[in-house]
Amino acid sequence: MTMSNDIELGLVELTPYGYIDRDHHHRTDIFWRDHQAWLAEKGYIPRVHSQPDRTPLWTDKREACQNYWDGAISKRSDLIDAIRLSDGETVMMKTFSRDENPHEKEITTFLASEPAKSHPRNHSNVLYEVLDTPGKDMSLLVMPALDRFHEPGFDNIGEVLECLRQIFEGLQFLHNCGIAHRALTDRNIMMDSRKLRSRSYDDIPLVKNPFSRTPQAPRYYIIDFGLSRRYPFDNSHRLNICPEVKDDPFAMDVCCLGNVIQRRILETYTGCEFLQPLVDAMCDPDVQRRLTIKEVVEQYDQILHSRWWWQLRARV
């Protein structure tokens, strides 16, 4: 049945916050609603508005439903946050098809297993467990709930440089493992800010306290390996990229990361202009001249060591 037919039959209504069915379920919640009992058996309760037997907290209130944890709408049906019953921690769940995308589970599991898991330069997302849904080829990755790396904003130069240092380090680790991310956008760079802010998931709006990254820098992560590939090394420890791969995926990662820095840092803040030559070299249209991630890290280390402490505290 099409969306237009659903509307005509009164099964869904269009609100300013998306399509909602008559049981107050967003269209992105259908999978989670149908698997709510199974997830509870596994020890997880997904975002409460996906539960079939509970009236959402926001339905009788005049405030926007987005202000409530059970009303916030995900733009992706494959993602939802949930409460882990064993300790009350908020986690993030992501679904994927094992048949359509066999690489995601393989790469994510590899990065979350020893010895890669304990490597200090590994900035891939922590993986709590993998759940295989009953009767389908779908799997769920259970991970910590993270925040986008640039929200809220940076306060000073030092916070920006520490963020980029970790992301460069993380991408270099992936490339050293033969893994090309192939989708390194700003949505796939996150931070763990649990020690720096408080949240509330009861019947009051979500609380996000302002915080500073300076006293205790958050850890930054590269996430979502749905499009990633792992390429083998030959006997001389050089990567074997298949001949049918027209564009160098590792060079593409560097360019994509450069574009993220251009948009989220250089075009957003003043005071970071000294990073422009590095970003330009990362985005050079000539792949042969474009920096490798190893060269990016080397040049970035020189930038870091050239800054005085008082320059790091300069506001952006």
Characterize this entry briefly.
This protein is an alpha+beta fold.
Account of the 3D structure:
With 316 residues, the protein is α+β, with helices and mostly antiparallel strands. It is built from nine helices and twelve strands. Helix 5 (157-176) runs antiparallel to helix 6 (249-266). Mean pLDDT is 80; it is low at 1-25 and 200-209.
Jot down its keywords.
alpha+beta; Phosphorylase Kinase, domain 1; Transferase(Phosphotransferase), domain 1; 2 domains; 9 helices; 28% helix; 16% strand; Prot_kinase_dom; Protein kinase domain-containing protein; protein kinase activity; ATP binding; Kinase-like_dom_sf
Euclidean distance between termini CA atoms: 51 Å
Number of strands: 12
> What name does the CATH topology of the largest domain carry?
Transferase(Phosphotransferase), domain 1
Based on secondary structure, the structural category is alpha+beta
Largest sheet: 5 strands, antiparallel
Query: What is the CATH superfamily of the largest domain?
Result: Transferase(Phosphotransferase) domain 1
Q: Which runs of at least 5 residues are low in confidence (pLDDT < 50)?
A: 1-25, 200-209
In the CATH hierarchy, the architecture of the largest domain is Orthogonal Bundle
Number of domains: 2
Shape: globular
SSE arrangement, N to C: HEEHHEEEHEEEHEEEEHHHH
How are the strands ordered across the major sheet? 3-4-5-7-6
CATH class of the largest domain: Mainly Alpha
Mean pLDDT: 80
The percent range for strand residues is 15-25%
Number of helices: 9
Helix content: 25-40%
